Amino acid sequence: MGLALCGTIGAQSLPYQDASLSAEQRAEDLLGRLSLEQKVSLMMNASPAIPELGIRAYNWWSEALHGAARAGLATVFPQAIGMAASWDEALLEEVFDITSTEQRIKFIQYRKNPQGSPQYHGLTVWTPNINIFRDPRWGRGQETYGEDPFLTARMGYAVVKGLQGPTDADYDKLHACLKHYAVHSGPEGTRHQFDAKDISWRDLTETYLYAFGDIISKIDVQEVMCAYNRFEGDPCCGSDQLLIQFLREKWGYKGLVVSDCGAIDDFWRQGRHGTYLNDPTTAVSRAVRTGTDLECGSSYRHLLDAVKEGKLTEDEIDVSLRRLLVARFRLGEMDPDESVSWNRIDEALLACDAHRAKALEMARESLVLLQNKGGILPLRKDIKVAVLGPNAADSSAMWGNYNGFPARTVTALEGITAKVGAANMSDPAAADVIIYVGGISPRMEGEEMRNSPEGFNRGDRTTIELPRAQRAELDSLARAGKRIVLVNYSGSAMGLLPETLSCAAILQAWYPGEAGGTAIADVLFGDCNPSGRLPITFYRSDEDLPDFEDYNMAGHTYRYFTGKPLYPFGYGLSYTKFKYGRARVRDGEIVLKIRNRGRVDGDEVVQVYMSKREDVGGPQMALRAFRRVSVPAGQSVTVRIPLEEAMFATYDEAAGELRATPGHFTFRYGPCADQKVLKKLNIRRK
């Protein structure tokens, strides 16, 4: 089981070894027993062992974006943006409870048999990514929960809750990490030099910081990762405004802050931010003093020289290290492995059938039906189908980025073949319907990538249009009179305007994970009624997009975009029709009925948006509540949404923050952010 905490100390019991004491008490005792050199070593991502004190080596860097990642076998759920399309907080929490179980197993297995690198086998996972997906060209937008601050906060909260486990347990199951703090959503190619500046206080408060502050106020999240970019001149990992004024003072955050990997190097190395050019001791002093407690990188080796030169004190080192030690005690990582209940999880649960079933459930809920001309879907299972396209049999494209490796992946081709039988699989000339599985790939869009194929720049996209070869092939098939169902893989919005003409149906599949092929077939052939809803706006073309480096929200996302989208935020079709009754306010709640007017059961996502007449310069409207509800065929359900004070909050110029103030409010409710289909409820707040 590895070196026990007291293995070299004999029978002597010291306070930091006493599990009956609080994590804070134990950390304080251990802090006083460490030399300065030992303290500095423990502030680095790959923290070494200190055998004389029974401290084992620990690597802080693990990933769990959509399942335990980069450590071999694991259940691979849909990419984060796909799970956001479920609008299902309860299911998302279940997914991340499973993820935390599998990551604990990775930790247990490595402790028993420490082969290879300890990286990715730890208990501190650097997820969720709650940056705002402000522009569809950002390659890492696939890692987020979309473009809306409220939806991002709700989904991020569910992730943290699922990962960290019950609050009344003896130890935390895992520690989650909110990233990347803050004001970060590309460009990838210049992130080590880019300064997000000239951002209005309103955009900062209402958009870029909202999810961070909201989640921190509601749950005891244990880590925050500061971003690579600068914010108004200061690197985020050395920003007084972000790390002290907002994070610590305004929000009262008590957990630790970790740098993005290599972000401190950016302070002083040539060709990067260079705010402390060729001066690493001043750079690391700034980072620690502003509250970056743990470095992923190698710059913190200069902390010893910084103390010797008088640029930083040992007491300031202690402030950061104290938070790191508390975290390790809270996880049980500093205690004998067998004494921690989470370490007794059955290892047979790793990538088990029950977890695979949950991956299928989430994949089904993530799929968004964008177009269905003439009700071509669902398809009959006795027709002749041809499956074409570059993603049809590509399993790795389904995994997204920051992924684990599943025991088995069902591709779209395999899922469809299993559904209709090999006898009904045909070549294009004889097919009744062509299912074209296209789009892009996580090998093209992603984090600071080295390759830049046509339409991409180091992981970001230079165009949102479908690749030219695919567009031409679809057009050719349509001209030949073929009925086409397009299944689109992407981690971001696509400009599919020509495809709305050439294709009869369009299904947005994101990167759907290990069970994605089964889920796609289930939806296409009617064994599952599609229920996903877009967490981002699908624009008509590149012409709809502002400058990629413009961080002001004007023209970005449904809240400020004044053009006509191809598919609006929150949009998604079903195989049934829902009718919304008129909403009323009763006993402090918005109450309305939803009726399923069709012949099949279906799930609807009821969305509530708010605007305020007096809020000049604010968003056209902003999401304030949503409910995912199941409605049986021919029946109605009553939806109740409490009118909480936060639903009335808008930006208060005088206070410089969101506040619920008097005024005239319009609440719009319905199936998506298209004002033409939303119904209105006017409320005056005195």
Question: Describe it for me?
Answer:
- This protein has 686 residues and is α/β, with parallel strands linked by helices.
- The chain folds into 3 domains: 23-349, Alpha-Beta Barrel (TIM Barrel), CATH 3.20.20.300; 353-560, Rossmann fold, CATH 3.40.50.1700; 578-685, Immunoglobulin-like.
- It contains 18 helices and 25 strands.
- The longest helix has 24 residues, at 89-112.
- The chain starts with 22 loop residues before the first helix and ends with a strand.
- Residues 1-11 have low confidence and may be disordered.
Give the low-confidence spans. 1-11
Beta-strand content bin: 15-25%
Number of strands: 25
Provide the residue-averaged pLDDT: 97
Structural class: alpha/beta
- What fraction, in percent, of the residue positions are helical? 25-40%
- The CATH C-level name of the largest domain is Alpha Beta
Q: What would you give as the CATH superfamily of the largest domain?
A: Glycoside hydrolase, family 3, N-terminal domain
Q: Helical region count? A: 18
- Give a quick account of the main beta sheet: strands, pairing sense, barrel closure: 5 strands, mixed
The domain count comes to 3
Looking at the structure, the CATH topology of the largest domain is TIM Barrel
Globally, the shape reads globular
Distance between the termini: 63 Å
Q: How are the strands ordered across the major sheet?
A: 9-15-14-11-10
Rg over C-alpha atoms, rounded to the nearest angstrom = 26 Å
What's the CATH architecture name of the largest domain?
A: Alpha-Beta Barrel
